[in-house]
Amino acid sequence: MKVQVITPWYPDAASVYLGVFVEQQVHALRAQGVEVDVEVPHLYPARRGPIPTHLIDAMRQLAERDPYAMFRSAGATTWIPSPVPARSGYAGRSDAFRMGLSLKREYLESTADVVHAHLAVPTASALLDLETRPLVVTEHQSTLDLVLAEPRARELYRRVIDEAAAFMVVSTHLRDRLMEEFGSGVGERIDVMPNIVDLSDISFRSDHDRAMRHWVFVGALIAKKGTRLLVESFAAFRRTAEPEATLTLVGDGDERAWVESFARRERISHAITILGAKPRSEIGSHLDRADVMVHMSPAETFGVAALEAIGAGLPVVSLAHGGAVGAWAEIEAIAGSLLPLDSKPTEVSSAVAALASNPAHLNPQAARDFVVERYSAETVSTRLAAIYEQVRR
Predict the structure, then answer these.
(1) Do domains 2-196+377-392 and 214-374 have the same CATH topology?
(2) How confident is the model at residue 12 (pLDDT cuts 50, 70, 90)?
(3) Domain chopping of the chain, boundaries
(4) What is the mean pLDDT of residues 299-306?
(5) Handedness of CA 44, 48, 54, 57 (dihedral sign)
(6) Confidence of residue 390 (pLDDT cuts 50, 70, 90)
């Protein structure tokens, strides 16, 4: 069986982290014996209004002379340039993807049995009138509300749900959101297929210091990841619970300057280490040296970082966003704490201190076993392969 994966997010030399979770899925499917090609439509911003015909003509002429110059390839992955008019929204991105994919297929044929699109809009919607093969869709974008707020994009989204051979979301939270938007009836067409949590590079320890002295966070240092709440909570923990506590931030982003300024004002710069973005292969070593992961993002569609920490034997303190609740709420009692979305720094600090004062109920081994059983590459790819077989009949 051959599958054509189409995704706007996929790692390349310029962005090694973009779409790593899609790449993990591709590798897991190949390990199952599924042949997988990947197409990556890539947006190129243009001026407002229709894309000039001379630009499309130039793309076509280049494709005729040398399709591999027009559509850059590496192995079984092909990047597809897709010019998009400024301010054309998610529907405009869908149109851009359709144009790019259509042109690519004129010169480089796709011979897969099944097409698997990541994101309903703009990716799957670009294929609605382009593909005759069974269309499988995975939804996992954190900007879903922005998509649904755009009238034409919302119409396209509903078409995708109705016409896809299989429609999956990575969390129950996303399924509930779509049922809220389109009615409970769509729930019958939506399956929950989680992302892969790969623990192959993450060793397990059950003897982390239960005093929770060493905090770790893995992710971008940006507002939507709750960076300020995290750092303010850490400062509160040092004041009220553990004056020798440290915080390691494995990531980077535009909130870094704020973190550094806050740390200087609070005179805790010596206690906070910002490592910047690190290769995934190194994440396990940083988890190994920590005692607790604290993750204050107010919204996630899934939340791989927390599950990786649980897999390493760490307790996790997180806000109870939809991704976390769907992913590990049923093991919260043995894996950490899920806090209300409006939690204040003192409340986060108290939650960590409460774990430190009563660690006996934590069961790191059972928590890791849960992650492996539910989210391993083998588990997820086996389910996906079965869906592909079902829709191609």
Answers:
(1) yes
(2) confident
(3) 2-196+377-392, 214-374
(4) 92
(5) positive
(6) very high
**May I ask the CATH architecture of the domain 214-374?**
3-Layer(aba) Sandwich (3.40)
End-to-end CA separation in angstroms for the chain: 12
Whether the model pTM is above 0.90: yes
Q: Which residues contact 109 (CB under 8 A, 6 or more apart)?
A: none
Cβ(182)–Cβ(161) under 8 Å? yes
Domain 2-196+377-392 sits in which CATH superfamily? Glycogen Phosphorylase B; (3.40.50.2000)
Cis peptide bond upstream of 122, omega within 30:
yes
pLDDT for residue 15:
76
pLDDT digits (tens, 9 = 90+) for 47-60: 999 999 999 999 99
Instruction: Determine contact, residues 308/199, Cβ cutoff 8 Å.
Output: yes
Angle between helices 304-311 and 280-288 (to 10 degrees): 50
- In this structure, what token pair is assigned to residue 196? 């892969």
Query: Where does 68-170 show beta strands of DSSP type E?
Result: 73-74, 77-85, 114-118, 135-139, 166-169
Strand arrangement, sheet containing 246-250:
272-274, 246-250, 214-218, 292-295, 316-319, 336-339
- Region of 117 please: left (phi>0), alpha (psi -120 to 50) or beta: beta
pLDDT > 80? residue 236: yes
**Span 327-350, pLDDT tens digits:** 999 999 999 999 999 999 999 999
